[in-house]
Amino acid sequence: MSRLALLSTSDKTGIVELGRALVEEFGFEIISSGGTAAALKAANVPVTKVSDYTRSPEILGGRVKTLHPRIHGGILARQDLAEDLADLDINDIRPIALVVVNLYPFEQTIARPDVAFAEAIEQIDIGGPAMIRAAAKNFAHLTVLCSPTQYEGYLDQLRQFDNPTIEFRKDCAVRAFQHTSQYDAAIVSYLSSEDSAEAATFRLSGSIVQALRYGENPHQPAAWYHTGSEASGWAAAEKIQGKELSYNNLVDLEATRRIIAEFTDPAAVIVKHTNPCGVALGESLSAAYEKAFNADSTSAFGGIVALNRSIDPATATALTKTFLECIVAPDIDPEAREILAAKSKLRVLLLPDLNQGEPQTVRSIAGGFLVQASDNQPIDLAKWQVVSGQPTETQLAELVFAWKVAKHVKSNAIVVTSDRTTLGIGAGQMNRVGSVKLALEQAGDKANGAFLASDGFFPFDDSVRQAATAGIAARSSSPEAACAMRIRCSGK
User: Could you give the residue numbers annotated as active site?
Assistant: First the structure.
């Protein structure tokens, strides 16, 4: 008897080619449902509809079609167990050798901002996960494929061995369970309360993008994963040149992305070891980059650069004047691409949407992990408290810029700015006095008339007096990380 394959896919990519190869090269018979059966039939690939095979019509508008003993008996039968084979014979059920299923596009549906709740619910697949899990459980006797990227590998197995190896079937089963687990996690997240950072359960799953040479240090193994059913974020970025990305590259790239996402005017961000060393806005992208580079040209050496405009030739030329590890921008002009190509080892990535990220952040601890809502709330000037003097609109705009940068500096964080450019940054010190000292020393004489932002309140007046002595015009800080802002002008 010919082998039987069940094909039922939402993503029809490659399904006709797979079906034709199964029939013409290997003599399979195919059963299929709904749109997959129609696609195969339209391509003249022989197919039997599931409803004809089960002798049961699709009901409830298609909600029930594959949930049937002739389907699941054929999938779950242990073909080395006499009792199972007897049950198949008595009930006129054929064993199924191949299950090809991918699921309703739930994640793609809920990603649409205008999606209705009822529409999202209808995209929760029931029969698909049941078939995938059943086939994955019984991988000792059949193969399950849940992605078009697996089709050619399966056909190669048939060409080499006639029946896929147990190792191949097991790998496919693992991928299948990962697929359904990720799918269920997306549903749980969608149906949970809006404040999912406090949900009763929190599931995190991902698909591997690539193994990395090592982690933060050479002795640490590491790998890169993406969440969701489709590649997004950095996994969807286009690397147009340069060496492979490292663990530290990716960590620093994400730090630059989070900072550049704060700004809509032409902006440039240079990061070293997750801390910004130069951030600036400008009338043009090249002007912004020159300002950011000159803010701390020493630290910029070997830095990670993010730009929020397409890289033009002038900016590309400036970028080639120092050693950089990575550059990311939404796009690049053809001439600029040629200019950067001269630095063949320089990693250049294109990520059209730099203003994206996860709604929560996750951090591991012993025995578990911590989840918090991402810090992406817009600045509300109405909540700022002016406690001395009255800043002008220009001063407020500068303080907003300084505050946005300080948000991304390791605490204790102090940022000194002027003309929408960082002049001095004090990061990661054990006390705020030390951070103030570092930032003011770096700013030097330019601190006179500049602006200062702190990520926390000053418990004593020593840092305030130090800032006033340096000539700081105004400063903003957050008492105990609250939203209220304190602004002090001219050290008063």
Answer: 137, 273
